[in-house]
Model the fold of this input.
Amino acid sequence: MMNTERFKKFTILHSNDMHGDFLAEATGIAEGHTIGGMSLLSGYINKVRQEEKNVLFVIAGDMLQGSMIDTEYKGISTMEIMNYLAPDVVTLGNHELDYGLPHLLFLEKMANFPIVNANLYIKKYNKRLMNPYLILNVDGFDIMFIGIVTEEALRTLKRDRSIGTFVSLEDAASEIGKICNAYKNDDIDLTVILTHIGFEEDKKLAAMLNPEWGVDLIIGGHSHTFLEQPAEVNNILIAQAGVGTDQIGRFDIVVDDDTNSIVEWKWQLLPVDNNLAEPDINIENLIATFKEEVDRKYNRLVGRLARQLTHPRREEETELGNLIADIFAQLDVLDVVFVASGSIRGKELGPLVTLSDLKTVFPYDDTLYKFTVSGVHLTKIFTHIMRPANRISGGSEYFQLNKGIKAVYNDAQKRVESLSINGQSIQEEHQYTICIDGYRYQNSEANLGITHQELGTPKIITTSRQDVLEEYLSHHQNINSHIEGRLIYK
Done:
């Protein structure tokens, strides 16, 4: 017979990268099967909270960005919906910073739930921006949560010079050590790191942690990884729950009070559909009030494409990517337009395009800059963006390019074999005009492999990329776009 005082069972439900995925989608019309959405997710969380004694629901970053409702209300709607779900603890993802730092602090004030992050600092004062950790007492057991985010996730903040971060994995590991050493004692029965750094990085982080610190679990996000089962590194279990609200992770664990360790565990990645739970009508009504407002404003027709254009993966040339790059290319005399593939957030657009569709597929409004660079520097940029490491799914900074570009890259030799514009080979000494968005300019070394000095003085072409797309599509009907082999790999 198990000693109930010494051993306790806990259920930890976890989501990550929800990205404003509020609404359920219908699949398989015949059986009326719906999947995902906050209503079913909330229904399942409610059900588990009723069935099990010790339930925790945690979110590993990126609640924001990805839906019109979120964009229109700058995350305020999302925070209201999250307050309704009442997570026990949340950590920051990169998209929590999309609306700027002051706004994030405003959203944090709106949250009725704790947000933890240990390694975002106000540089000058060496002060942490958020609470680094939280200890929850659940049924007499103390559970410690620590939040971690890293450099990749924080490139958005490059515009805010006052915020720094101990962002390398080594730094993150030592921050965890610092907190465990300073605040963890014999009474802490379970230690969970909530990260938003990606699954591969989670494994590296786990390997760096001193076993003496007693970390039991890493629950992560950012890389949108779907797992069969958690990884186990350095005796630490590592899990993540894909992307959106179509699934939820569930850990059922038994913790030993004497050894402060997990003695038994089971993990499942559960599809959130109407077989899992009954929808939660209250949250549906809350979302509906936001949706009506947004629909009224954005459901007007902008224009029409010849057919539906797709953007299936961000690591390859796509029809939709080519269309957007070609639209920006007509703004000015531009040789090369670089459109970050990851800024295209939808997999398809058209044939009918409403303002809502357009802003959902291309949510990040930004300035476009024009630069003049030499052929040498242009080749340097292509060498950087076409490198094999930049085509790995999830973390890449791949680019879509305008018509007339043909770049051939040799993977074995890791070099650009040929680069031409409208059939003319690039000449080293010639000057070429290129166009990039403000965010990629801020982070030009990481994204393009070129410094601000090498790029020279920027000239602003437009302060709103979205305005450009909306205007163009409303005055050019039945546009088509195809994959042409603008970037070729050998």
User: Anything to note?
Assistant: The CA atoms of residues 304 and 352 lie 5 Å apart.
